[in-house]
Amino acid sequence: MSKQSMQIPHEMLRMSCAQLLAASGVPSDQARMIADVVVEADLRGIGSHGVLRLPAYIHRVKAGTMTAATELVALRSRGATLLLDAQHGFGQIAGIYAMGKAIASARENGVGFVGVRNAGHFGIAAYYAMMALPHGMIGLVCANAAPCMAAWGGVLPLLGTNPVCIALPTGGEVDIVLDMASSVVARGKIRLAKSKGEQIPAGWALDARGLPTQDPVEAMKGTLVPIGGPKGYGIALAVDVLSGVLTGSDFGRHIPATDETEKNVSAGFVMQVIDIAAIADVEEYDRGMRELVNDIRRSACAPGVERIYLPGEIEWLKKKEYLERGIPVPASLLTTLRDLGLEMGVALSLPEG
Fold first, then answer.
1. 165 phi, psi to nearest 5 deg
2. Same domain assignment for residues 210 and 139
């Protein structure tokens, strides 16, 4: 383990996050829900979307550009569809509620589609898509984000990393969870590298002039590289239409960054659920999934490759490890959390870095 990080038990980290949120005015039940989503990201090894984001959330609440208590309003409903306004509240609360509604709709109608507008950053999309899995359903989630990626061939940030997640039950120990940004990497990973004082790999980002860079500071001033070149740009654009234009939320250049405190949060997202039993015979589906997964497991590995993983399996394994050993948290982030706690009058039981 790096001397620059410490292994923190997940319960301790979750409790500290909830304490900080509650101290900022978030209702205790909502604080626990947000903390659960935040820590889940770190448990799955996605530190860019985990506790690292918490200070920015709290600063927004203190600035009045994100509401402490999230209250959702239903704007439209027809058949299996629903549109909600998060009224500039926490994306985590809106996401959990929206996916719950989508699951209920799928149980009744076979499918469910819930759009949300005017919400804050909701963390990892996988958290919500995976909510459908225990119900024998497929979860699909996409969201827009602050602009940090140029249209293909341009240099001006117009589109966010705009993630897409699809959670597919396999009937086995490990489900398929495809959770991907439309850029080569989520911007949070560059933010994380910046906080650690580390360089980023080549191919992740361009500087403000549109030239490749491995400096996270210059990358934050420039743009991210879309996955698959123009294909990633196309995915980001389509997700922005679904999440922003369709829901009536902000889109493109209008969405403020997570750490911006002068403008209300205004991102959008959509939650979609398919009840497998409404489309297919469940036993037949399970057999097909087992065959497909087994074919992948048994396929020959390319030179230098020891094992083929299912999408989301590495994160599943990481969670198993971190539940037992604790979550590695950068010492600098622990200091930030403790300082934030002192500022808010909360003594956190976090170890000294």
1. -135, 135
2. no
